[in-house]
Amino acid sequence: MPEPSTPVDIIRLDHVTKRFGGITAVNDVSFGIAEGEIHAVVGENGAGKSTIMKMLAGVHRPDSGALVLRGEPVAIADPLHARRLGISIVFQELNLFPHLTVAGNIFANRETTVGPGLLNERQMAAATREVLASMGVALDPHAKVGALTVGEKQLVEIARTLQQQSDIIIMDEPNSALSAAESERLFEILRWLRDRGLTVIYVSHRLEEVFAIADRISVIRDGRYQGTWPIAETSIPDVIAQMIGRRLGETFPERTGPSADAPVALSVRGLRASERVGPIDFDVRAGEILGFAGLEGSGVHDIFHVLFGLAKPTAGQVVYKGRAIPPRSPFEAIRQGFALVPANRRDEGLMTAWSIRRNASLAVLDKLLDRLGLIDRGRERELANDYVRKLNVATDSIDKRVINLSGGNQQKVVVAKWLATGPEILILNDPTRGIDVGAKSEIYALCDELARQGLALLFTSSEIEETLGVCDRVLVLHKGRVIREFARGEATKAQVMEWVAGGVIPEVEQISAEGEDPRLETMTLTD
């Protein structure tokens, strides 16, 4: 019987090191990606994963070591050169032109013409239709990309890489903002790409999906390579131990919840957040973490937007500090003591080109003015340094640009910005989206600490385990109404998902508490 053949590396890092100033982001890393496989690369935020991907895609060049492509050392000058070599990257923050059509984006910078200054739109649309059809995707080549869902935009990115005839596709956090159906469609397409002989390099913090989609997995920790394993020969706990250098203990902190005599911090009565959401009634006490669970479109986002003054309700009361009227704007919400950590930190939570210092102080500049009405830079620096220390933000300077931080540290800066306002009601909309297991544990602990300090927290997550593990109570929303309430420890994931789905899983009682039913694993919570 012949021995199994050794996978042939299509691309390899050979003792690669990359530094940024005094920080070594990637330290003497060597490993290979086999041709025709889905290869996952995982690690904590700041471990060096994104730097490795950007070197493979031509965004950065190694300071030492070599990249070996198809057996030959190669110096990838820039992303355009990488694409010519057959390497494309699909970033978590999609790089599309919203005002252009699907075809316009797929052929951006490679437009076909019928003469000077005249685009051959018919030919580009036909080619776009052909590549989309090969993926099993029914998108109109003439549709404006700005009107597409996040999942559809991602499919356009993948179609662009195929039209460019790339045979190595890097997916950087590809489904952190996708619905369950969009994620499953993405996985089907990635398997299809692999079966055609293409190579997919898959970067994700969601280890469950990594184990569902990848053939092999490589771990990076603190810029160093820890090893590569076939998925069938390792486990999630083993991978986590390699990622953080230890076995992860109890994920969620122990909580006793607010005291029985804790005052009601916020009371919502008869709230109609839109024509399809409401009426909603709930109370949250000081020191309580109140969770919200619901499928897309259930109304969680709508409620949060009303509470923070981003949307006007059509009816109802929001009773807070003797007032029954919800904030009329975010500025009023902040003044009243509300804060919102948004789900999309880059677009809605941060000025990514600004420093940590400027982001952390942005919402409280009026409190940092001197007698002349100018910003007191000393107090601003003191505030930023204080929160960097409290939240354990990994940085060598508060003047470092936020865009150069890892996702987990970016999220900590968002939290710092809102904690600086001194809120009494903190709204957390999917606060761990796109961050690693170590950073997640820190967010969980922070939620517990803030609640113990007396804040009232409203919490939702796309991962039901988080909502159950973090919160004292969970309200289940379905089609804009609260249909069930669970106390902490009262429900399993399967039971919550049964209510979240409106009773569409009749045999759910036979499913174990771990939720092994694959339908539960692929459902995505919150809007």
Concise synopsis of the structure shown:
This protein has 527 residues and is of the alpha/beta class. It is built from 18 helices and 21 strands.
Note down, in words, how this protein is organized.
The protein has helices spanning 49-56, 79-84, 102-106, 121-134, 150-163, 180-195, 207-213, 236-244, 300-307, 330-336, 345-349, 356-361, 377-390, 407-419, 437-452, 464-470, 493-500, 518-522, and strands at residues 9-20, 23-34, 38-42, 64-69, 72-74, 87-90, 113-115, 118-119, 168-172, 199-203, 216-221, 224-230, 264-272, 280-285, 289-293, 315-319, 338-341, 425-429, 456-460, 473-478, 481-487. With 527 residues, the protein is of the alpha/beta class. The chain folds into two domains: 9-244, Rossmann fold; 264-522, P-loop containing nucleotide triphosphate hydrolases (Rossmann fold). The strands form five sheets. A six-stranded mixed beta sheet has the order 6-9-10-3-11-12, sandwiched between helices. The chain has a six-stranded mixed beta sheet with strand order 17-18-19-15-20-21, sandwiched between helices. Strands 2-1-4-5 form a four-stranded antiparallel beta sheet, with helices on one face. The longest helix has 16 residues, at 180-195. It starts with 8 loop residues before the first strand and ends in a 5-residue tail after the last helix.
